[in-house]
Fold:
Amino acid sequence: MSHLSTSTRRALLKKMGALSLAPVATPLAMNLLGMANASAQTATDYKALVCVFLFGANDHYNTVIPYDQANYDAYYAIRKGAAIANTPYEGIALTRSALAATALSSTTGLASGLQMALGPTMGGLKSVFDAGRASILLNVGPLVVPTSKSQYNNRSVPLPPKLFSHSDQQAIWQTAARTYGAGTEGALSGWGGRAADLILSNNSKASLSCVSINGNALYLSGDQARSYQISTSGAQTVNALASNSLFSSRACAEALRSLVTQSPSGHVMEQAQTDVMNRALNLYGDLNTALNATPNTSAPGNLFVSANAPTNNPLSQQLRMVARMLHQRDTLGLKRQVFMVGMGGFDLHDFLPTQHPGLLQRVSDALKEFNDALNNLGLANQVTTFTASDFGRTLASNGDGSDHGWGSHHFIMGGAVNGGRFFGKAPPLGVTHDEQVGSGRLLPSTSVDQMGAELARWFGVSNADMSTVLPNSTNFDLHNLGLMKSA
Structure:
């Protein structure tokens, strides 16, 4: 990608005016330093990427489980223990009989004789997989370069910093960090935001290019794009300005409005902040007006077809808001969007048999409902959803849970996905083989950059710009996974 010289004052103000409120935790000065001129790319259709982040590190070994007898036996031998009352667990191993209903009939992409099942509570996602609307990417994780076990042991190649650390690995997944040597502290942008940088000019409301329904999201921060945060109930604003009343006084509210929106006396930073505030306040009304035309309801015949879906599923509520925004894409003048939703609770060093099934059911139910909503909207081929997490877990048990790992299995969902199959390489089941680095911690065979490159190309990022979006992608063979039907 060709970068122009540092932005002039006029160009800087123009760019800042296109953004929503920047995250409070990120100093405005640091955001400005990250800005550069990106080569605009044209979009005539609509596409969206949706990242579903499972915070805490999902136990992939009990999410995608070997079901053929030989590999199941290897899994069971390591995770087995005493039977746990009222659960399908013996130790932290799921019984094979409990997997019968969620065994996946497709073995496309797997080595001969290997078969997989989903966790017993994941019937909803199984139906999406069986319908060819989802696939599984095996053993994906952060890498700087392709890495063997001996290279890992000898530290003879650069490695992602602070492996097995929650906060660092969450950041690396989201940033595909430009430099790894000093860690991820202070990283300014994520690969979703950098992909959005290239298409901002296609969106009438550029502030809605990157939308988080899960708080501050580094993944959505680009050099120009910034994460616009919204709750499951709608756009947020300054309450006093929305109600036009502060301390029960209209005059106080007007004084506040004047303070936060007045034109300063020529200071570039003050002017940029004023532009941001004005556009955020203006966007509030437009967005909520649009969302009110797509109510959050599961009434038959409406957007959400799962009329009996539980109401206590936070991930479902977040994805419903994504669907409502997708429904209003034309009203809001949008051609490309990147979303992030998420749910926590997956750091299960203990209580895996009692807590993990419920977490997986929420994920499965929410993704199934979202898939149905996309079908209703006629957007099944234009929205691609993928899961991510801090890292995988150990195959070995630490009692009634598992420890921090590295590589993990993840889902890719959408009508544009080559669905109903497996991608990547299924690792052996064991704690001593060369595709793990101790206790069954998987050494990733596919990098986040490889996965991200296929998603980014489908989204519209050119091959020439791929190293800007995913800086380490130049270290890997790209576009050979075959995740997407066309890209």
